[in-house]
Structure of adenosine deaminase:
Amino acid sequence: MPIDQHGDAVLDGVSIRSLPKVSLHDHLDGAVRPATIVELADEIGLDVPETDPGALADWFADKSDSGSLVEYLKTFDLTTAVMQTREGLTRVAREFVEDLAQDGVIYGEVRWAPEQHLARGLSLDEVVEAVQEGIEEGEDAAASAGRDIRVGQLITAMRHTDRSLEIARLAVDWRTRGAVGFDIAGPEDGFPPSQHREAFDYLASEFFPATVHAGEAAGLDSIRSALIDGRALRLGHGVRVAEDLDIVSREGEEVLVQFGDLARWVRDREITLELSPSSNLQTGAIAAWGTTLEDHPFDLLYQLGFSVTVNVDNRTMSRTSLTRELALLAETFDYGLDDLEEFQLNAAAGAFLPVEQREELIDLISEGFGD
């Protein structure tokens, strides 16, 4: 399914970009416009690999397609470097929201790690305030353009540092001012959620929701720790839960699968999987199954009844959009509009919002898909 020059694709006669969408797994420092990076870098005297925005976009795509999460994460050194001032953070957050709205997203959650943006003297509160200001500016700009969107912050701690309790307290402090949830991110293998048990205990005591990066660069033990130690309501990626599925037989379209206890728990409890197809290929998260989108266990998980959602992870690194991810899946697995709607309904149900607002989202999605 070709993506046109406007970043759109047509499925069953309908523009995918025009459909209402929900984005749950989208990193702020992974969604900076290349042109913005060039301009902000010039303002602070930072050298960049390419000064032409198009060439810089190519650089990100090339460096990110490594098959390794560790190598993939190195590209963030550049984006975070231009997000160390209040002005830079606010601009990036504003453009983040504008780009989501342009892509048809009506609700999004932006995850980012405040502790990574203190190099030029800002405090944790000041960086969160700067990002929230940008989000609200982006929402207002979208409304002026006739697009309604709401975006909440997922305050994130880096799993290889020791500030998770401090960041958890920061997230709870901002819960009525824009923060909707907590996450841990960064190098997954070797840094299990159990190392941050004190932070997760605190969040649980405050009834504050958490999603946890798990099942991407590490396997079932990481997912188990996210659920037990992190009390995760959603799994950031979580694709490797498929390692707990044993395909017993295949007969045409019929597949007989034996569930492990972990996979059954995730499926039966409707733990939301924040799957990011293009990113999962780039980081090698699906290496156990293959190297192409056809090999991704997305469709297997969907057909087995897991609560699958479609996400971009990092728009700049993967040179993608939610429209593009949906188009790629539709083309690869022969999905129709009903399938794409199901993914959005799953995302709405998993959003860190009060139930009344989730029901409103569901109604907007159903209306937008013509139900």
